[in-house]
Amino acid sequence: MPLVALRGVSKRFGNGTLAVRDVDLDLAAGEFVSLLGPSGCGKSTLLRMIAGLGAPSAGTIAWPGRDEKATGPGRDLGFVFQDPTLMPWANALANVMLPLTLQRLPRAEAEQRAAAMLALVGLKGFETSYPRELSGGMKMRVSIARALVMRPRILLMDEPFAALDEITRHRLNDDLLALWAQERFTAVFVTHSVFESVYLSQRIVVMAARPGRIIADLPVAAAYPRDDLFRTSGEYAHLCRIASGKLKEAIGP
User: Fold this and answer.
1) pTM
2) Hey, which residues does 79 pair with through a beta bridge?
3) Residues 6 or more apart from 21 whose CB is under 8 A from it?
4) What are the start-end ranges of the E strands in the chain?
5) In a 3-state reduction of DSSP, which class is residue 149?
6) Strand, helix or coil at 251?
């Protein structure tokens, strides 16, 4: 039974643009899936519909096995945007505590869980630091900690590392895989990067534009854990060539 099941999902905006058309997609518990495609292919739109941040114009998004009385993904889901979207007036601990505060958890328990999550993303000792005092990579770590502090079953990530330098991006890719291995949430990761999608994922779902649709679902059978040796291996190069070929098909002539 999938964790999330999309059937015939389409999205047409008010201006008439058909952003997503007839998407069928199953997301299994504990898997790492990347949505790969060119700008404007509907990756972010699809991610937001899974998150409940927009309703499909047609089709269904189901969460099999959830309480039938529940509506939307609720606490099952964490979302990381491309921008860290931190509260500038709050320190790192308070930013991570926000979802727990909104759920009215006792302050002592919320502080303990937020501090533990900051430590898990490598920011122990930075609890009282404000966003203006943190690097881009550190702010993204705070954002990831905030998304995971509710212990979601699925983590949706919308190009979270796109604005970072390559060294920081590689480090955060490694840290994200370590978190995924430890916490075993389902990860859905939007990216433009063939190299990033192959490094992270068990599956790469390739999307084409006009309208947004799935054209390929590629397995990535390489073993975990993955490291710099994998990045320079023949297996990695081969998988990147396959994904790159499908991305070229998505872009078209």
Assistant:
1) 0.93
2) 156
3) 10, 211, 212, 213
4) 4-12, 18-27, 32-36, 58-62, 77-80, 154-158, 186-191, 203-208, 213-219
5) coil
6) helix
**Helix or strand or coil: residue 4?**
strand
Cα within 13 Å of Cα(206), Cβ side: 21
pLDDT of residue 14: 85
Residue 201 CA to residue 46 CA, distance in Å, equals 18
Please, what is the Cα angle at 219 between 214 and 220, to 5 degrees?
A: 130
C-alpha angle 136/137/142, rounded to 5°?
A: 95
CA 177: distance to chain centroid? 12
Coil vs helix vs strand at 227: coil
- CB of 181 within 8 A of CB of 11? no
pLDDT of residue 252: 77
Distance CA 212, CA 237 (A): 27
| Residue 227 CB partners (closer than 8 Å, separation 6+) | 174
Is pLDDT above 60 for 73?
no
Distance CA 248, CA 253 (A): 8
Q: Is the peptide bond before 152 cis (omega within 30 degrees of 0)?
A: no
